[in-house]
Amino acid sequence: MVSTVERWAQASAVDVRRAARAGELTASTAGMAGGFVQVNLVILPARDAADFLRFCQGNPKPCPLLAVSEPGERGLPRLGADLDIATDVPRYRVFRHGQAVADPTDIVELWQDDLVTFALGCSFTFDHVLSQADIALRHVEQGCNVSMYDTSLPLARSGPFGGNMVVSMRPLNAADAIRAIQISTRFPLVHGAPVHLGDPDRIGIRDIAAPEYGEPVAIRDGELPVFWACGVTPQRALVDAGLPLAMTHSPGHMLVTDLREHEIAVC
Amino acid sequence: MVSTVERWAQASAVDVRRAARAGELTASTAGMAGGFVQVNLVILPARDAADFLRFCQGNPKPCPLLAVSEPGERGLPRLGADLDIATDVPRYRVFRHGQAVADPTDIVELWQDDLVTFALGCSFTFDHVLSQADIALRHVEQGCNVSMYDTSLPLARSGPFGGNMVVSMRPLNAADAIRAIQISTRFPLVHGAPVHLGDPDRIGIRDIAAPEYGEPVAIRDGELPVFWACGVTPQRALVDAGLPLAMTHSPGHMLVTDLREHEIAVC
């Protein structure tokens, strides 16, 4: 008998989006629709969208842009033909003045004609690509969230959006670190190559054993910490900007697109 | 006025080969014919050539094969139209029973109808590619030879050819290490991606401050030692095999080919 987890792993992107749209799926999309690209969503009124677009463009490693909608448009045709931004994510998060105020399962009632949607690369896809190459990921082994850290790496500022980069860390032995650099280089739309490896002090990490986000993982003898730009970076920038209204996916509850992972590889 | 060094740097591969052929050039080819691929040569009687070919095939990182001649053939048409293996290298080295016995400027008198020539990727080209990408190389800054080490990394044995890999080491900060991995991955024919980075113990290096070949270089605060498979590997294997006759280029005195560096990039 096929378990629910396996059934969702083998589902298509369209299956996942339709289940979310029907209200049947409100769970995290981790491990669902294997091989399909999942994305972070940021939805902003047009008045803030130009600044955020420039912010992403200036910081492509933490904020890799896969698609931007026209104002008011509820589709993202490059990411899927049958796709409704306001219903197809299992759970959303609504921010007012930088505060999370609700986690609804759709945003139909909140929709406005001036909303612009940004789809950004997501680490679920990144981790899946590494796992497919037999690179063991400690946070997957430990069954916990990846370790993420504030750094001293400054972002290119744009309007109200700025601050420092947040990075995720995966401990790897040297051979896997080299291989992971090669593989992630092929995927600039899910954060691309690492921004650092080795000594955490060099990028202003306070305490490698105490990540600011996610959970700590063991770094074993012979392993190097390898640091990638992280999708928490735009989330932090968004919260810090304190906009009157902003909406995103709820953490872990992604938009699943019709793009296959190999389609976003640059070589 | 253009210096001799600059003149040779701007020379074509054909210019360098013709000067070597005429006996006018007997110096190291380091820095000559910028952008043209230089290669190591190994020349063996046919009876040993099949084993050596399998050895290279089984150990592509230290022994990347660009071309192999037919027995007795003095040309390597894939590497240059007007090319004579027996005259176009500034200086050769002749080995008998594993001992270097002569460093002649041509091997016309020693030529035999059964000799097979192997052209292997060379670190001059590798270092040039990294330098073109603005990656500062410590051994170039220090004006010395690169540091090279015996390791415990075993080679695939073939007939009399075996032993452990020799690696070269370049100290780089994390950002340059990541970039150097990306760039060298594009060039498998000049040793490709590193085989290790970080802790030298992990690959059996005895003392990072005392390289077995070349000269020691400073590893500065915030830098990682990055290790690449090295062309000294086949030279060691050749000497250790103790063949009755083997010929190579003299160290630093390479065959300059008509191939441009970008032609051997895989992406």
From TrEMBL, chains A, B:
Its EC number is 4.2.1.-. It comes from the Bacteria. GO terms for molecular function: lyase activity. Keywords: Lyase. InterPro entries: D-Glu_cyclase (IPR009906), Putative_hydro-lyase (IPR038021), UPF0317 (IPR016938). Belongs to the D-glutamate cyclase family. This is Putative hydro-lyase J2T57_000525. It comes from Natronocella acetinitrilica.
